[in-house]
Design goal:
Elements (H helix, E strand, L loop, with lengths): L1 H13 L49 H8 L1 H4 L1 H21 L5 E4 L2 E5 L3 H4 L6 E12 L6 H67 L5 H35 L26 H7 L1 H21 L5 E12 L11 E10 L7 H68 L4 H35 L12 H5 L5
Helix pairs in contact: 4-6, 6-7, 6-9, 6-11, 9-10, 10-11
């Protein structure tokens, strides 16, 4: 027992001799300001109350129907439920690895009756009984940090899973908002075509009346009727894209497509200003960046785990209990037995296997660092892309509004001239086509601006922050957060 106690004390002394590289967060490329920000009045510094996105970021669009749809995602979306279950699985692995800090205690009870054949012993004996109640314990002291590193690895993986969960949630919410605004854009285009269709019907009636009065030709009537028919077909074709967007929104909210019907609507005004903040904040605001960084931490722990294979393993084992051939003396003091002692194991020759494992872990770490930096670069690109899209589309919207006004004025003039008989109906048709095309383009620009605003929110992390990642203590708790 004194030898075992000495071994245990020795192991405690060596517990601080942990191996493995100390983790340091890798550097990432960053700039002091976004390229699209300087001198751009579209994104002036917001007031303190508006300086950051909130968790329910979609509320900035001030659309009650969008708010209602987004509120259905957390409880019903199946992709989100899958990511949440994967996070719970990763939490369980943290607790599993942390349990290795403590000894394992086992116990068993057995009652056995047996008889040895007289042909083997030469003595005719009756059956014998064996009553046994053994207890055992084993413990592997964390000499070189194997347990610590495994816990660090599991913790980093669980935090990665938590960030992945946040990223899935943000992606689903962003996709829903983008689909919703595209659907409203289609509704606006359909409404525009419906109004145009009514105007074309009046034009056909006017042309027929003029033909009957001998003022217009049969060709004018045919052209007016052809334009009316093609516009009616174009209006019908819009139903395909709208139905598909409505079905996609239903699935995102966890419903079968037949269960959701969205009434026709329209986009209420231009997108609200989205405060992008400064580039350095992006590293803490994007869940995918946080997930990539936690993967680096997990890969760093993997290097240490590979290095611990070069060091011996000490296991302290103890067993004891009572055993007797009679039940009356089974639990008595003379029936006791025990054993106690350490065992030490060390790999002596593996022909480079452990060295190759360390080299592989180091290469995996380097690859993970490169992946992290690439994720950061991609995040900056997404922000810049959508800032540029919003800036350019805002300018284009003003220019397109002028084009719409000009086309409408031109259409009015051509229609008056046709009624006066100074131009042919072909002039009217051409002008009508130009006017309709410009109005549809204006609606398309507005829809693209709303989608770009949603994509910018997603690129900025949607109000998420890395401080919301669960800490190691929370992950080890048996209580679900």
């Amino acid at each position: 027992m004194s030898k075992a106690a000495a071994a245990a004390g020795f192991s405690l002394l060596l517990a601080g001799c942990a191996v493995g590289p100390k983790y340091q967060r890798p550097t990432a490329p960053a700039t002091p300001a976004y390229k699209e920000m300087p001198g751009n009045a579209e994104w002036k510094t917001a007031a303190p109350s508006e300086g950051a996105l909130r968790a329910n970021w979609w509320e900035v669009f001030n659309d009650p129907q969008l708010n209602q749809l987004e509120s259905m995602v957390p409880a019903a979306n199946q992709s989100l439920k899958q990511a949440e279950a994967q996070f719970r699985q990763a939490r369980a692995l943290v607790r599993l690895n942390h349990a290795n800090y403590y000894p394992t205690v086992t116990g068993a009870v057995s009652i056995t009756n047996s008889r040895t054949p007289a042909s083997l012993t030469g003595i005719n004996r009756g059956p014998t009984a064996d009553y046994s109640l053994p207890l055992g314990a084993s413990w592997e002291p964390d000499f070189w940090g194997r347990v610590r590193l495994s816990v660090e690895n599991a913790t980093a993986n669980a935090q990665t899973s938590a960030a992945d969960l946040a990223n899935v949630r943000l992606s689903i919410q962003g996709e829903l908002a983008a689909d919703y605004f595209q659907l409203l854009g289609l509704d606006m285009e359909q409404a525009l075509l419906s109004d145009t269709l009514a105007a074309y019907e009046r034009a056909v009636k006017l042309t027929i009346d003029r033909f009957n009065g001998g003022v217009a030709s049969k060709a004018d009537v045919a052209q007016a009727q052809t334009q009316l028919a093609s516009t009616r077909a174009e209006l019908t074709d819009f139903g395909v894209a709208r139905s598909q967007l409505e079905h996609a929104i239903a699935v995102l909210t966890g419903q079968p497509p037949s269960a959701l019907t969205i009434a026709p609507g329209k986009i209420q005004g231009p997108p609200p200003p989205i405060p992008p903040g400064v580039p350095s904040e992006l590293l803490e605001r994007r869940p995918d960046i946080a997930a990539a960084e936690r993967q680096v931490a997990a890969a760093n722990a993997e290097i240490g785990l590979a290095q611990t294979a070069f060091y011996p393993t000490l296991t302290l084992s103890a067993s004891g209990g009572v055993e007797s051939s009679r039940i009356t003396t089974w639990l008595s003091w003379p029936a006791r037995f025990w054993s106690l002692g350490p065992s030490l194991a060390q790999t002596l020759l593996d022909f480079g296997r452990r060295k190759a494992q360390v080299q592989g872990a180091e290469a995996a770490y380097d690859a993970t660092v490169a992946g992290y930096r690439q994720t950061v670069l991609g995040a900056f690109q997404e922000v810049e892309d959508n800032l540029a899209a919003l800036r350019i589309l805002s300018q284009e919207a003003l220019q397109q509004d002028e084009a719409v006004k000009g086309a409408q004025e031109s259409l009015k003039l051509e229609t008056d001239q046709y009624k006066a008989g100074t131009v042919s109906y072909l002039n009217v048709i051409t002008t009508q086509t130009i006017a309709l095309s410009n109005e549809i383009t204006a609606v398309g620009i507005l829809s693209r601006r709303m989608t770009a605003a949603v994509q910018l929110v997603r690129a900025l992390g949607g109000g998420w922050n890395a401080t919301s990642l669960p800490d190691p203590t929370t992950l080890r708790s048996a209580v679900q957060p």
